[in-house]
Every structure is written in C-alpha cells, then in structure tokens.
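Something for you to look into today, if you have time. I want to see for myself how the chain folds. Leave the record below and I will have a look.
***
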Amino acid sequence: MTELRSGPNDLPWSQDGYLLLNAVRTGNLLPRLYQWNPGIQCHPLFLGTRFKELLDVSPVLVVVEGHHDPVLQAFLHNAEHIWGLLLFSGTEAQCIVDHLRWLVTVDEPVGKPTLLNLSDPPVANALFELYPRQTDNALFGPVEHVYAVDPYVKAWRHHQRLGEPAITDHNTLYRLNAAQIDALNEVNFRNTVLKLDQHMARHFPDFQARLDARGRFTYFHAMASTAYGHGFHSESDILHYANVMEFLDGQATAAHPDITALLYTSSALTPSQRVQKANLLALERDKQSSGARP
C-alpha cells in the first residue's frame, strides 16, 4: 500500500488541485474536513439539487492548498480505501463546482434521469477510460487531469482531457451513451469480483496466494464470469461457487460427481439452490477429510 499512499508521479502542480471526495466511503466527511483544516474551502455537490437534504452523504469538492495540504495528506494516507478523486484544472473553483453539480443527475439512453456518483473511483475510472475512443470530453468539463486509484489492481489511474473543454448546456442533463452504461454495469460486476477476492483471502488465504493483485483480479474475474455463465448471478451464488472451486482444486475431475452435477447440470432446482447445495456438500466433505487426517 506504500506505493498507493505516495500518490501519482509528476502531478501538474502548475494548475490548481482539487479533491472530489466520496462521503459514503469516508464517513462523517464534513466534520472531518473542518477538523483537518478549519479554513478549508469545500463545496458539497448536493447543495442546490434535489438531494439537498442528504448533505451527510453528498460528494464534496475540496480546494487543495498545495502539496502539504492536510486534507490531501489524509486522502493519500487512505488511498487503498478509495476516498475519491484528485483533480487538476486551470479554471476557478466555481466552474468546477458547477460542472460536477451538473453531473450529479444524468440521463440514460432511454431518457431516464439517474444519480451518477462520479466521486466513486471505480465509476470515474470506468467512464473516463472510454475517452477519447467512445466519448467526447464533455464529462471532463473544465477539469484537465483526473487521478483515481484502481482498487482492482491496486494502482493509480490518470485520465487527461485533450483540447479545449466541450461547450455544455447545464440546463440539459448529460446523457450517458450505450458504452458508458455497459461500463457502469461492468463496475458492478467488478465490485463483486473484488468482494470475491476479499472473501477468498479471508477464508482460504493459501488459495492462489502466489498471484499479485493484478493476477488475483484476473483469476477471480474469470471465475466469477464462469459462474455467471452457468446461471449463478447473485453475489452469494458466486461466492458459493468459489467455495466449491476451492474445495475441488487439485482433485480428480471424477472425485465428486454429485457436486459437479449440481454445478453444471440443470434440474428442478434453481441455479441458486443447486450452488447452495453444492457448497454444503463441499463443506461437509472438507470437514470429513480434515477429520480423517492424522
């Protein structure tokens, strides 16, 4: 985690720095901000929106007062907890606030207004990574640089706007395109993969322990995708499937045909019921095997 906490390299301090903090991830955000810096300049984005009664969970834009700003230091010290985004812009703070407040509510392709939590690093990385191949720079607005931790591979990501900011009409909601919707859906799946990785590290610390963070994410993403392909769609289904995979790892394919059938053969049971039953059988046999060892 030391590399994450040291922050990104070669930050563009010739521009003004900002933090876009996620109040849900930090917890008790506004009181903590004033504790770190009583003279702080901060802007809760929900002010002036239909979410104005929810300031305790509002994303907050903070003006960074240089390298040694105490809020920036707290942000970096907690980099692995993905508290939010580090932004740089040559534009005054109010323009940044107006742009980010405009993005609190966006349109889906079907014309359905929805809350966009751009302060969440997985969401931000997923959307900004589409630029410039599948989106224009309207999402950046006046922001030129976006830095966010990628929790899946434990590394900083850097997204840079090219050219001048797009001209946007803040009276019209920003509309997500199909590629952005797909990217947000993938974020949800990746979050399940992250929980799967944490689950396996906690309950089966020796399983795939040789892999680094990137390798573990790739491995468990493939496992979760396989589970999903067999009809195990919920988070609990995928965790149960992984438990069974750990039990079967290294054993002969034909060693437990009943468990294998539950995973891969349709029956009167629902997929969730089948994988739950397979998980229970694997747990029972693991206990029996452990009890039989000298």
